[in-house]
């Protein structure tokens, strides 16, 4: 009698109880909402952690997280795994037009002699490098010196941002004149990658920062803050707390840029609308 074929292993899934515990943990650590509709996404992303840790199942990984045996850096790795990192150069280009034509000239007219800008959810770096191109061009045309802070909760994307190396097609939205000045071929020509020039990379300081922390240690107040397409992952109370803290980090007359799909309607904030999803501190 021939042996029966072995049954295929059941698909590794998170139980409702474990998903609920994970979603609470993620919310507590990051403010990111993880509703039940995200269970498949979360399972897929945690599979990467199984491969990296050598664990066999999601149950084993969850036990490792919750029984206290996980090293502190595993929480960082978990956050890196679940955060979404969508970014492009000159994304939502109207913001950069407003920055060039209105915000920067107004700040100079108001006496600013050095522009401080912050990309508060910089992902892999396309946003702060775009800001740097604009600010560098402005400085070359007689504008003030500048410095940029770029932060994110995800340490992996911060490392990519620091290197400033990207697939060549990612810089397609960069105007040709700016590409010629600020983008060079990476050392490995066969890889079809480009690199941001050293002078621009040196103008940006990269650091990890969690937007749900009680305060933001960013130094002197900022003239310009970009925090785009992040609030959509938070609930309304968290959104208002984050935007209030961002406003606290702005100089009077400074500008806050939010994502085109984000709203601060109904929030009690010290800003007025300057343009579409651009706000100025009063």
Helix-strand pattern: HHHHHEHEHEHEEHEEHEEE
CATH superfamily of the largest domain: Vaccinia Virus protein VP39
Fraction of residues in β-strands = 15-25%
Rounded to the nearest angstrom, the radius of gyration is: 22 Å
**Under the CATH scheme, which class of the largest domain?**
Alpha Beta
Number of helical regions? 10
For the secondary structure, the number of strands is 10
Q: Can you give the mean pLDDT?
A: 89
Cα distance spanning the termini: 85 Å
According to CATH, the fold-level topology of the largest domain is: Rossmann fold
Count of folded domains = 2
Rough shape? globular
Classify the helix fraction into a percent range. 40-55%
Descriptive report:
This protein has 282 residues and is of the alpha/beta class. It has two domains: 16-82, Chemotaxis receptor methyltransferase CheR, N-terminal domain (Chemotaxis Receptor Methyltransferase Cher, domain 1, Orthogonal Bundle), CATH 1.10.155; 93-281, Vaccinia Virus protein VP39 (Rossmann fold, 3-Layer(aba) Sandwich). The protein has ten helices and ten strands. β4 and β5 (193-196) form a beta hairpin. α2 packs across α4. The longest helix has 17 residues, at 93-109. It is globular and about 60 Å long. Mean pLDDT is 89; it is low at 1-10.
What would a concise description of this structure say?
This protein has helices at residues 16-30, 39-53, 58-66, 72-82, 93-109, 126-140, 155-163, 176-182, 198-201, 236-248, and strands at residues 114-119, 145-152, 165-167, 183-185, 193-196, 204-208, 222-227, 250-258, 271-275, 278-281. By secondary structure, it is α/β, with parallel strands linked by helices.
